[in-house]
Amino acid sequence: MPSPIAGLHHVTAIASDPQTNLDFYTEVLGLRSVKRTVNFDDPGTYHFYFGDDVGSPGTILTFFPWPGAARGHAGAGEVARTAFSVPAASLEYWHQRLTDQGLLVERTGKRFDEQVLAFPDPDGMQIEIVAHADAGPANAPRFASVPPEHAIRGFFGVTLLEQNAAQTASILNIMGFQKIGEEGNRLRFSAPGRALGNHIDLLIDPNAKFGRSGAGSVHHIAFRAKDDAAQKEWRQEIAKHLDVTPVLDRTYFHSIYFREPGGVLFELATDPPGFTFDEPIESLGEELRIPQWLEPKRSFIEKRLPPVSLHKSLPPIELQTEAGATV
Ligand code: ZN
After folding, report:
1. 12 Cα to the center of ligand 1, angstroms
2. Ligand 1: centre distance to CA 239 (Å)
3. Do β-strands 126-132 and 78-87 pair in parallel, antiparallel, or remain unpaired?
4. Which of 12, 174, 236, 272 is 20 to 30 A away from residue 2, measured at CA?
5. Measured in whole angstroms, how far is the alpha carbon of residue 202 from the centre of its chain?
């Protein structure tokens, strides 16, 4: 078998207003803008990447913001929830922070061993913050008003809404995800190890209608391939069961795509080369980056893109009194 798939690499969704999207993920959720580029298949559209301080695989949420895009309707064959991981002790912090922003935050109560906060982003995308004992250390974004101890670690996982479980479960099994739990109509599949984004939940509703893609919809989810060799082996394995695209060069990773039988578009993306491929870590995501083959069209592309500005916050510092006590 190829080198195991550790978990999610990134999640890609659709947004409407670019500035609103940029502000929400950097200033409210405290993620770092790790790349500002264009949709390689549609260079008149931005492609924003948010993540931890370096854009580690398993932390990356990406958006195609289409100004004026109509909202999607969630449905079967789609990602219903995208969940981030925080430590158990950060639950109250996040509840307060999100409520202070005027967001309608639902506490879903205990799910398996976790506490979950659910809320919509500005385009209605359903986000969860999962507080749990197994959250690892933070690679906290350097420009964020969230204290590093409460920083979002990366993905916990995603929930897929499906009409039935069997075929999706079988492809997840082939990819190395095993069913580890069941609660009501929710089935949990996990990859071995404890990488970020190693939980895929299937929410089963035989009567769920198919949705309509639009702002607030997840376009696809990408899993991690260790390198090009592992991706090649996985491609051969998956091609025995499903149609798979050839390898596509996405500059920051190499990708193959296939649609799982329930309807969700899956991608397998390589960990290398990563987001420091074309700019230094200190200023990741601050300027428009475009692939070499689009550089001759840069001025044309820049004119078509709406201007956006990135507001960088610094983490709150603890004030020391003269006596040395922390206030
Ligand atoms: Zn992708």
Report:
1. 6
2. 19
3. parallel
4. 12
5. 17
CA–CA distance, 312 with 26 (Å, rounded to integer): 8
Cα(79) to ligand 1 centroid in Å equals 14
- Laid out side by side, the sheet with 114-120 consists of 106-111, 114-120, 126-132, 78-87, 154-162, 199-204, 186-190, 178-183
CATH number at residue 153: 3.10.180.10
> Does the model's pTM come out above 0.85?
yes
Q: Indicate whether 245 belongs to any domain.
A: yes
Across the chain, mean pLDDT equals 95
For ligand 1, the distance from its centroid to the CA atom of residue 201, given in whole angstroms, is 19
Q: What are phi and psi of 249, to 5 degrees?
A: -85, 110
Strands 265-270 and 254-259: antiparallel
Give the chain's radius of gyration (CA, Å): 19
- CA angle (281, 284, 286) in 5-degree steps: 150
Whether 40 is covered by a domain: the verdict is: yes
Give the distance (Å) from ligand 1 centre to CA of residue 314: 29
DSSP 144-203: -SS-GGGS--EEEEEEEEES-SHHHHHHHHHTT-EEEEEETTEEEEE-SS--TT-EEEEE
Residues spanned by the domain of 88:
8-304
Three-class secondary structure of residue 265 per DSSP: strand
Number of domains in the chain: 1
Residue 79 lies in a domain: yes
Ligand 1 mean position to 204 CA, how many Å? Answer: 25
Q: How far is the CA of 275 from the centre of ligand 1 (A)?
A: 14
Q: Has residue 316 been placed in a domain?
A: no
Residue 204 has pLDDT above 50, yes or no: yes
User: How far, in Å, is the centroid of ligand 1 from the Cα of 317?
Assistant: 36
- What mean pLDDT is predicted for residues 307-315? 91
